[in-house]
Amino acid sequence: MINIFMDDCRKLPQGFTLARTTEECLLLLRECEVNILSLDYDMGPDDYSGDEVCRRMVLEGLFPRQIYLHTSSSWGRREMYELLYVARPEGTELYNGPVTDEVLAGIAAGAAGK
Question: Which residues form the Cyclic-phosphate processing Receiver domain (predicted)?
Fold first, then answer.
């Protein structure tokens, strides 16, 4: 089981697999069992935005256990949240903000123990 951090420029948190493009993120969602997914909205001028990933997640049923929206775009965060909220299956937690420091510390501790 993996954790995915989709972002075109931010530093990768410990214990996450980095997706620098929306296609990388979708490939990981399709091929791996995902625990936590943390999404950015603005993915650069040559890529789709995070809401496209959300649309494909809904269409293909690609839901992880937890979804966080770490984007600095308030409009983008709202757009992604609204797409995911109505479609998320039971058992998928959706957070309208970034992964908390407490959760990051737990992930890092687990990654260090491997």
Answer: 2-85
Q: Residue 42, SS3?
A: coil
**pLDDT 10s digits, 6-44:** 999 999 999 999 999 999 999 999 999 999 999 999 999
Helix (H, G, I), strand (E, B) or coil at 7: coil
From residue 103, alpha-carbon distances to 44, 54, 56 in Å are 27, 22, 26
Domains and CATH numbers, the chain: 2-109 (3.40.50.2300)
CA distances to 9, 11, 52 from 33, rounded to whole Å, are: 24, 23, 20
Structure confidence at residue 78 as a pLDDT band (50, 70, 90): very high
Q: How far is CA 77 from CA 42, 51, 96, 106, in A?
A: 10, 9, 7, 25
DSSP assignment string, 20-38: -SHHHHHHHHHHS-EEEEE
Distance between CA 47 and CA 74 in Å, rounded?
19
